[in-house]
Design a protein that fits this description.
about 375 residues, about 35% helix, Aminopeptidase, alpha+beta, 2 domains, nine-stranded mixed beta sheet, seven-stranded mixed beta sheet, single chain
Length: about 375
C-alpha cells in the first residue's frame, strides 16, 4: 500500500493498492447496488491478466472518512496498438520511435474494455470534480508515476467544464439502438425497415440458415480458448486504434462473473468454429453486444458480422431491453441497423511536446478513416 496527500485545502489522503481483494470490503461498502466498480466486476480483468496492463485501486479519504474510490488501468503502449499501415510508411520512422519512447505509458481512469464504465465514484456528487485534482497529484506522487505521458478520464457520467490540464475529448461516440416499446420480435423489426433494408435483412438472415449457433457454457469457453482468442484478434487487429487487448481468459472470467447475464454464442460452419459473439444483459434493462470474433475467410459469404448484430438485436428484444449498446467501431454497419451516436464524456491530459503531437496525429488519422458516411444511414420507413 502507498499513500499520498493532495492539496491541503481539500484535506484528502489517498491510498494506492495493487489488488482489489486487499480493499474489496471497504470498497464495496461505498458503492451503490449494481455499480460497475463493484469488486466482482474489477476482478474479471485482474484475474485474466491482459497483456501490457496493470491495475491500481485508490481509496480517497477526507478527514479520515472514505469519500471516494478510483479505478486505474496502466497501459504500456507498443506499436502493436496502432495500425501498422499508418506508421510503417516511408518518412514516419520518427513516429515509431516516438511511440516507443515518448508515448509508452498511459494512465486510464475507467475501463478500456467496457462502455459506460466510469472509473471513479464519490459518495457526494459535489466531490466528483476532485477526480481531476487527484489524478494530477497521483502522477506527481512518485518517480515511477511521472513516466506517464498522459491520463484518460474515460466514460465520465458528468459533463465537466474545461479544466486547466484536462481537456474534453469530443471525437468519441458509441452507437446505440433505442428499443423501448418499439418491437416485440425481430420480425416486427424487419417490418419496420424500408424496402431496401428489408431485402438486405432477408439476404443476411438467409445466409445464417447454414450456420449452427451454439450457446457456450463456461466449460465450452475453456475448451475452445485458443480458437476464441484467435478469432478475437482477427477483429481487434483490424481496428486502426487498438488500445489494449483482452485474452481468452477474459471471456471465461466474464462468464463466471455474470452467469446467464453473459451470453457467449459460437457460430459453426461445416463443424468449424468461424465466429463468436458475446452479449451482456444489465440490471437496468439495457443490453450490449460486447466483444466478437470472426474468421474473415467466411465473413462475406456467410454475412457473419451482420448476423451477429441481428442476433444481438433479437436477444435484446427477447429480454425486453430498453436499449442495445453496440460499441464504438464499425459505425457504418451499426447505423445501417438503426443505431444512433451517443456522445461519451472523456477528458484527456497529455504532457506537452511529443506526446501531444503524437496523439494529434493518431487521432486525426483515426477520425479521417471513420469518415462521415455512417451519419447518413436510416434503415427505417
Amino acid at each position: 500500500m502507498i499513500s499520498f496527500c493532495n492539496t491541503s485545502r481539500n484535506n484528502l489522503t489517498i491510498t494506492e493498492h495493487d489488488r482489489i481483494a486487499d480493499v474489496k470490503d471497504i470498497w464495496n461498502l461505498l458503492l451503490p447496488p449494481h455499480h460497475s466498480l463493484l469488486s466482482e466486476n474489477l476482478k474479471v480483468l485482474e484475474n485474466s491478466k491482459p497483456e501490457s496492463m496493470v491495475f491500481k485501486y485508490l481509496l480517497v479519504h477526507k478527514n479520515n472518512v472514505l469519500v471516494g474510490v478510483l479505478y486505474l488501468q496502466h497501459l504500456k503502449i507498443t506499436t502493436n496498438h496502432f495500425d501498422g499501415t499508418m506508421i510503417d510508411k516511408p518518412g514516419l520512422g520518427w513516429l515509431k520511435k516516438c511511440v516507443n519512447s515518448q508515448f509508452s505509458d498511459i494512465l486510464v481512469c475507467g475501463n478500456l474494455f467496457r462502455i459506460h464504465f466510469p472509473g471513479y465514484y464519490f459518495k457526494s456528487p459535489k466531490d466528483d470534480k476532485l477526480v481531476f485534482e487527484i489524478l494530477t497529484d497521483y502522477i506527481k506522487s512518485s518517480k515511477d508515476n511521472k513516466r506517464f505521458c498522459g491520463i484518460l478520464l474515460k466514460d465520465s457520467p458528468h459533463l465537466f467544464s474545461v479544466t486547466e490540464k484536462f481537456k474534453p475529448y469530443h471525437d468519441d461516440v458509441t452507437m446505440e439502438i433505442e428499443l423501448k416499446n418499439k418491437w416485440t420480435t425481430l420480425e416486427e423489426y424487419k417490418n419496420s425497415l424500408s424496402k431496401k433494408y428489408k431485402q438486405r435483412f432477408t439476404k443476411i438472415r438467409k445466409a445464417r440458415e447454414i450456420l449452427v449457433v451454439k450457446e457456450f457454457s463456461f466449460d465450452d469457453i475453456l475448451e475452445n480458448a485458443s480458437k476464441i482468442e484467435s478469432l478475437y484478434l482477427n477483429v481487434a487487429l483490424k481496428q486502426s486504434l487498438r488500445i489494449g487487448f483482452v485474452n481468452a481468459a477474459y471471456f471465461s472470467e466474464m462468464k463466471q462473473r455474470h452467469g446467464e447475464s453473459f451470453i457467449f454464442q459460437g457460430y459453426y460452419f461445416n463443424e468449424q468454429l468461424v465466429a463468436f459473439s458475446t452479449n451482456i444483459f444489465y440490471a437496468n434493462n439495457t443490453s450490449e453486444i460486447h466483444f466478437i470474433g470472426l474468421d474473415y475467410t467466411y465473413n462475406e459469404s456467410l454475412c457473419l458480422y451482420f448476423n451477429i448484430l441481428f442476433d444481438g438485436l433479437e436477444l435484446a428484444i427477447a429480454a425486453n431491453s430498453n436499449r442495445l449498446e453496440l460499441g464504438r467501431t464499425a459505425r457504418v454497419a451499426k447505423s445501417s441497423l438503426g443505431a444512433l451516436p451517443i456522445e461519451v464524456y472523456n477528458y484527456i491530459y497529455l504532457r506537452k511536446g511529443i506526446p501531444s503531437l503524437a496523439f494529434s496525429f493518431f487521432n486525426n488519422w483515426f477520425i479521417k478513416n471513420i469518415g462521415d458516411d455512417w451519419r447518413n444511414r436510416n434503415p427505417f420507413k
